Amino acid sequence: MPPIINVIIPAYNEEGSIAHVIKEIPNLVSEIIVVSNNSTDQTENVASQAGATVLKEERRGYGYACLKGMEYIASKDIKPDIVVFLDGDYSDYPAELTHLVAPILERDIDLVIGSRVKRLREPGSMTFPQIFGNWLATGLMKLFFNANFTDLGPFRAIKYDKLLALKMVDKTYGWTVEMQLKVLKKHYSYTEIPVHYKKRIGVSKVSGTIKGAIFAGVKILSWIFKYSFT
Question: For residue 96, what is the DSSP state?
């Protein structure tokens, strides 16, 4: 029996990109869940017309949107085997989802991170705050936990039962690093696969502003130091 795979896509004002993302997700995915994070444009209508299940989360925050998607999955009679998280800005290549879930299906890995390696990145697709933040966060995880992460990439796949066991709580920008830290703490298996990355459609709500970049950095570092001393 083929695995049941659900995709959660947090989206805030992504009307220009969301249909492209949905269209390129491979057919092995059972359900695509777009969580509109208080969008004020046509994101919800476009996503619905493209075939996604659309949820609304009025509280702004990446983590809030992810948690809303998980809440919906928990309410379903048939639960997935794997949950994939993917951004709605079309910076990732959704077709690479097949490669992302392969280590779970073939090697029983718990978490797979899509690593935005330099050789596969379109020039200018990641801002300096993103590059520096990834370097610092993964460096600290290496120092404190002997981790082998190179990225906090949002394109990721995880076994559904393991995701539930992490008891995720972060409501905003600390979601990705919280997941990786908790995986380390629980000694779950993990790996990274290189993924392509291109310039997003529209302006980033995090790295596109100084305020967003600073807030994201503070959240990420606070999670790392919290787990380093507990």
Answer: G
Over the stretch 64-123, which tens digit does the pLDDT of each residue have?
Answer: 999 999 999 999 999 999 999 999 999 999 999 999 999 999 999 999 999 999 999 999
Collapsing DSSP to helix, strand or coil, 129 comes out as helix
Give all strands of the β-sheet with 82-85 in edge-to-edge order. Answer: 53-56, 31-36, 5-11, 82-85, 156-159, 111-115, 190-194
Burial category of 153 from C-beta neighbours within 10 Å (exposed 0-12, middle 13-18, buried 19 and up):
buried
Please tell me whether residue 76 adopts helix, strand or coil conformation.
coil
CA-to-CA distance for 150 and 180, rounded, in angstroms?
A: 11
Extract the tokens encoding 45: 């209508």
Contact 156, 111 (CB under 8 A): yes
- The three-state secondary structure class of 34 is strand
> Do 17 and 90 touch, CB atoms closer than 8 A?
yes
Q: How many other CB atoms sit within 10 Å of the CB of residue 176?
A: 24
Cα–Cα distance, 173 to 166 (Å, whole number)? 17
Give the other-Cβ count within 10 Å of 41's Cβ: 15
Strand partners, 156: 85, 113
Residue the block writes with tokens 């370097």: 135
Cβ neighbors of 23 (< 8 A, separation 6 or more) are 50
